Amino acid sequence: MYLLGYDIGSSSVKASIVEVATGKCTASAFYPKSEAPIISAKPGWAEQDPQMWWDNLKLATREVLSHIPDSSDIKAIGISYQMHGLVCVDKDGKVLRPSIIWCDSRAVPYGNRAFSELGPETCLSRLLNSPGNFTAAKLAWVKENEPEIFEKTDRIMLPGDWIAMKLTGTCCTTVSGLSEGMFWDFKENRPASFLLDHFGFGESIIPEIVPTFGDQGRVSASAAAELGLAEGTPVTYRAGDQPNNALSLNVFNPGEIASTAGTSGVVYGVNGSVNYDPKSRVNTFAHVNHSAENPRLGVLLCINGTGILNSWMRRNIVPEGVSYAEMNSIAARAPQGCDGLSVLPFGNGAERMLGNREAGCRLCGLDFNRHGLEHMLRAAQEGIVFSFMYGMEIMKGMGMDITKIHAGKANMFLSPIFRSTLSDISGATIELFDTDGSVGAAKGAGMGAGIYSDNNDAFSTLVLLERIEPARSTALEDAYARWKDEVSKIL
């Protein structure tokens, strides 16, 4: 008996099959093998064609299915997806325009104007955030700038909702998903009619709401034929990539922290009471196990410019053919603090942590006579870590105690420099586990199908790979102080 998990990222689509009995991943595959393209027709824009997600999902599905005897052995499917995207479809379910994805900045003025006109107290007490650059504000941009598209729009969906619709033919969403799009009113425990009315959206544009865990539809005959899956296989779990990453690390309860450092970087902590950052620099959404009676809110710090900075360095600065592991070795030649060189990694759209400013990536203190490639590579990693720390200080101001960080041993957490710098500057112990988003989505599906009794049952086989303990470093503390001085100039 197996479970299938999908992770719909902006870089690739990954599929994993998990064997229920052992909890181990039987097979994984991702496509494309190089980073998926992002369409950026204008500065600050970022779009992807949803059909590309589906095409890559088909390739990944076919590959992993070759590792099991029969696709009918898959008993449930879970979906993790890139958050905050907008997919508009007509009454026949046809996609009307490319998806405006998470790192697109065009909607910032629309969200800011709504925040001002509705009032900070109303937005923060009911949405727990400013409408900012989230899905609702993206739809407001479409309404004003592409009225012919808006008029044809019958339903709006997040990327994972659209994938689920392609699998099942059923158009639905979740409370967690609505909260990440700024469509959920935590005070009224229903869709945020006050924001819908303000933007001029009819409530019918919101799909049917289904539980995060439970029957969300079944694989249709047409999808089964395309993918090689068994018709009728249930989809039983769906969540945005960051709540799902927390689930993958068995982070469900107040005070527990999960982190990722892929294209973007995230620190995600669970809060047991309704709270928010008055400046909306970190954001609060419904966690996978949230309910009105038993609040479980995910406080999310997101830094857009994380792994994308490291990959930019690899493409443009280091010699061709140098691997990420070799880059880490080169960076290790430079001392902590990089002899005064600082990098601000904000080159991937508007940063919520900086009040939705598009600050751009900056090298500060570069000395042609002292600094070389090793300094630039290490300063880039330290700059990413410092952006994490800057956001964690905001989270601490909300009453969150960050003493332990759970993460998968992947992406930037593969770098010894990155993980030791993060542990040292934050004072937190880092625990690295053998898991990823698609495996977590598969286990979430097992919970939703009732195959696992609860999260502890689902994640009883989670393997701790490494523990990093913090050590105080004056050089890092000084470097972080310099870095914050540069940020203050932006603000």
What does this structure look like?
It is built from 17 helices and 22 strands. The strands form 7 sheets. It has a 7-stranded mixed beta sheet with strand order 16-17-15-14-20-21-22, with helices on both faces. It has helices at 50-65, 108-118, 120-126, 135-145, 147-152, 159-168, 175-180, 193-199, 221-227, 241-248, 307-316, 324-331, 373-397, 416-426, 437-448, 455-458, 474-490, and strands at residues 2-8, 13-19, 25-31, 47-48, 74-81, 87-89, 99-100, 155-157, 172-173, 184-185, 190-191, 208-209, 235-240, 257-261, 265-271, 283-286, 297-303, 342-346, 360-364, 404-408, 429-433, 464-468. It is of the alpha/beta class and 491 residues long. The longest helix has 25 residues, at 373-397.
Any chance you could write out the topology, listing elements then pairs?
Blueprint (H helix, E strand, L loop, with lengths): L1 E7 L4 E7 L5 E7 L15 E2 L1 H16 L8 E8 L5 E3 L9 E2 L7 H11 L1 H7 L8 H11 L1 H6 L2 E3 L1 H10 L3 E2 L1 H6 L3 E2 L4 E2 L1 H7 L8 E2 L11 H7 L7 E6 H8 L8 E5 L3 E7 L11 E4 L10 E7 L3 H10 L7 H8 L10 E5 L13 E5 L8 H25 L6 E5 L7 H11 L2 E5 L3 H12 L6 H4 L5 E5 L5 H17 L1
Parallel strand pairs: 1-5, 5-13, 9-12, 14-20, 20-21
Antiparallel strand pairs: 1-2, 2-3, 4-7, 6-8, 10-11, 14-15, 15-17, 16-17, 18-19, 21-22
Helix pairs in contact: 2-4, 10-15, 11-13, 12-13, 13-14
> What structural class should be given to the helix and strand makeup?
alpha/beta
User: Segments where pLDDT lies below 50 for 5+ residues?
Assistant: none
Q: State the total count of DSSP E strands.
A: 22
Helical stretch tally: 17
Largest sheet: 7 strands, mixed
Instruction: Describe the strand arrangement of the main beta sheet, using strand numbers.
Output: 16-17-15-14-20-21-22
What's the N-to-C terminus distance? 54 Å
Mean pLDDT: 95
Q: Tell me the overall shape.
A: globular
As a percent range, the share of strand residues is 15-25%
Radius of gyration: 22 Å
Tell me roughly what share of residues is in helical segments: 25-40%
Assembly form of the protein: single chain
